[in-house]
Amino acid sequence: MKQENQNKYDVIMIGGGASGFFTAINLAEEYPDLRIAILERSGKVLSKVKISGGGRCNVAHAEYSPREMVKNYPRGEKELRGPFHRFMTADVVRWFEDRGVLIKTEKDGRMFPVSDDSQTVIDCFMDECKRLGVEVLIKQGVDDFYRENENWRVRTATGYYTARYVVVSSGASMKIWNTLEKLGHRIVSPVPSLFTFNIKDDRIEGLPGLAVDATVSILDKQGKKLRKSEGPLLITHWGMSGPVILKLSAWGARELAGMDYEFFIEVNWLKDRKEEEIRQELKLMRKTQGRLSIMKKSMFHLPKRLWQSHVLYCGISPDANWADLSKKEEQQLASVLVRGRFEVRGKSTFKEEFVTAGGVELSEIDFKTFESKILPDLFLVGEVLNIDAITGGFNFQNAWTGGFLAAKAIGASAL
Fewer beta carbons below 10 Å: N end or C end of the chain? Predict the structure, then answer.
């Protein structure tokens, strides 16, 4: 029989991740009389912060307009616009720098600690918790939580905790989602949101690491374009990645899950060039540069190895000169460069980061406070909500903003 542990707190965070720590620290700093605890199921806290950005922790993105910022969220765009007007990028940078963590901005807009080490962020959070008296309790997986009179009752493997307020900051946890559903919340079933495409094809075989600005479309079984995006495409050992693929995986998360991750994409390796335009340029080469080798020098600013792989894919001899190019080969080469069709069979997690589309239905949350509209004194922040973003620091921004506003609301209510 489990020994009942009557640990009483004012506020309990369920989950020791980014959003839970940020909520707890902001709350404790402004309202030092509150007794606050973070319950973490594993033996380590902030594990996702540790691996973020390749171990450097991509804390934010250098976007300062809420209207533009929300465009990076396939789910949550409308709901986050108001919160971002209250706490966003500049506030995050100031928050960290006030605590000794200097932030730098890279060319692509991603923002990291100057140290290039995620441990800097973790140490900052842990030091703040120690300074402010926030209790961090590890190996406290939450089995259940429910209302009991005016308080919340939280059950873990070791006993019970009580608190007036509970903040659910558990991320993508089926156990917590199931509990919330039992309590009356609607859960949008989770599916992967940020992943790369597994492709086996002669045209990209042996070309890992090669990157091109391209336009990529997702096709249905009838060949109709479902979604289109453009940007850097990266060829990998297992297929295709890069920002353009990650955008498609995020915005098309549910459609692709419905296809069991087996579908076709169409790649325009020349981004926005038209097929007929390319054919005319190839024809001009055939007429004016007939003695030159087709393979020796690439066209259209394509990487040489990618150009050569497409030439060979079209059945053109590696020894052929431009004068040898037939009209059929000319047409086929133009087609595969601007309408190259590839079969996708499966997905891979992007690096070590795992993001889901799904979670608590957004219409059930008050986004001025991040409090549940269904359950009083229950707040939900971070990825437990049906909010997700593309890579680049945007998922952390959701965590920081939600945590900050929830802390404000709890503190004002507790006075």
Answer: N
**Distance separating alpha carbons of residues 332 and 159, to the nearest angstrom:** 69
| Distance, CA of 36 to CA of 24 (rounded, Å) | 7
From the list 145, 94, 58, 389, the residue with the least C-alpha distance to 243 is 389
Cβ-based neighbour number of residue 121 at 10 Å: 25
User: Tokens for 309?
Assistant: 């792989």
Is residue 1 included in any domain, yes or no? no
> Which residue's entry shows tokens 């404000």?
408
- CB contact set of 211 (below 8 Å; sequence gap of 6+): 232, 233, 234, 235, 242
Q: Is the dihedral of CA 266, 355, 402, 367 positive or negative?
A: positive
Pair (246, 304) in one structural domain: yes
Locus of tokens 């396939």:
74
Q: Are residues 344 and 357 in the same domain?
A: no
Query: What are the φ/ψ torsions at residue 219 (nearest 5 degrees)?
Result: -110, 150
Mean pLDDT per 10-residue run, the chain (415 residues)?
64 98 98 97 95 94 98 98 98 98 97 98 98 97 96 95 98 96 98 95 96 96 92 96 95 96 97 96 95 95 97 96 96 98 92 82 98 98 97 96 98 88
CB 381 within 8 A of CB 20: yes
Question: Alpha-carbon distance 234 to 110, whole Å?
Answer: 18
Q: What is the DSSP letter of 56?
A: T
CA dihedral 44, 385, 73, 123 (to 10 degrees): -20
**What is the greatest pairwise CA distance in the chain?**
88
Tell me: do 15 and 142 sit in the same domain.
Answer: yes
What CATH number does residue 71 fall under? 3.50.50.60
Q: Look-up: residue for tokens 């919330």?
A: 180
User: Does residue 159 sit in the same domain as residue 239?
Assistant: no
In a domain, 2, yes or no: no
Report which of 39, 181, 94, 84 is spatially closest to residue 387, judged by C-alpha positions. Answer: 84
Whole-prediction pTM value?
Answer: 0.91
Distance CA 194, CA 353 (A): 8
Domain residues for the domain of 90 are 7-192+353-414
